[in-house]
Amino acid sequence: APADTLARRDAHVAAAQEHYYSRPPQIERGWREHLIDTEAQTYVDVVNNVTIAGHAHPGIVDAAARQWTLLNTNSRFHYAAIAELSERLAALAPAGLDRVFLVNSGSEAVDLALRLAFTATGRGRILAAREAYHGWTIGSDAVSTSIGDNPRALETRPDWVELLDAPNPVRGTYRGRGSAAAYLADVDARLDALGADGRAQFAGVVIEPIFGNGGGVLLPDGYLAGLYERVRALGGVCISDEVQVGYGRLGAHFWGFEQQGAVPDVIAVAKAMGNGQPLGAVITTAAIAEAFEQEGSFFSSAGGSPVSARVGVAVLDALRDDDLQGNAQRVGALFGDALRALGTRHPSIGAVHGMGLYLGVELVVDADLTPAPELARRVCDLLLDDGCIVQPTGDHKNVLKIKPPLCITAESVAWVVAALDRALAAA
Ligand code: PMP
């Protein structure tokens, strides 16, 4: 096996750019939902929300390699792949959202979406929610308040961000609240408190239809539609962050906002779009795109480059040809049911959140749902030894993040559930 490069990595890669685990395996190859390290140990990759079509997907690899041999350069040139990808994205988006900007990441997509809201309205204040993560760039970070990875996130909000309480029925302000009415009454109160001047500065809202960093807790029915209605009544723009939740992972829905029966004005998407190739997009209406054009042009050197765009098309082909969304629905249902069944035998499983292959297993200390972050850490370490890569997420770092490639088989799922059973018993 090649010499382990961890010490070399730690010597120069800034420590804030964390890797999973204190002693991470050195991963050399991937195949479908599997990762293989330099010691030839195989892992089931349960945490990966990027490689939706699976690692080293032949059609995607082939498309990337072929495009590299032909052309790869900046996105100001006219080439077929950028047209094909944008056309396919517009066809997947709701009616009226048919203008596409191509970028390299989720952070960039959210940042650009915020700029679109500013230019479309000529206003500068944004509504966001606690417990959310939207990215690391200045704009996307400003609306990110999840304290799991950034404990000081709430102390550093710029004054153009207005925060709603996390719409989380599991813990916090709204614990046990099933209906959206209480949440929306608080939104009304918050908007009222802004005063007429504050409301007149209001450019829109950015929110995930299901909070990814929160571990997949579903919003109460009607919350998103009610929120959008209020934002639109004030002349604001509704941005859906689909970076984690979108692109078929929910199984029953391609986009997260569909789960809530709401339609945004701007969609920010990335991660899954490139199956690992840096690629993201903002999809919006002609009116919003044209307002932005009044301000100037948009250029991202590698956003939608020939290779990225070609990969983007190949990922959409894989989604269709491999029926990845259908698999997310079928295998995701098995996964969710098996995890819930495990919960009847392990009291440390307080809840199983999410749907499709967007699942979170909430590990708790007691029936009061006190978070169990140490247990989550130990379980993840035991699972690693057993050959399964899972990580804790959420504000309390106690939710096992279950977001495997959408091609995961029922056999792998059964194996992961058995491994989790062993780990919970041992931890
Ligand atoms: N939005 C959400 C919901 C995310 O989960 C992430 C990444 N975890 C981002 C935005 C930022 O995406 P990226 O890391 O590609 O910049």
From TrEMBL:
It comes from the Bacteria. Belongs to the class-III pyridoxal-phosphate-dependent aminotransferase family. This is 2,2-dialkylglycine decarboxylase. It comes from Microbacterium ginsengisoli. The chain holds residues 525 to 951 of 951 of the full protein.
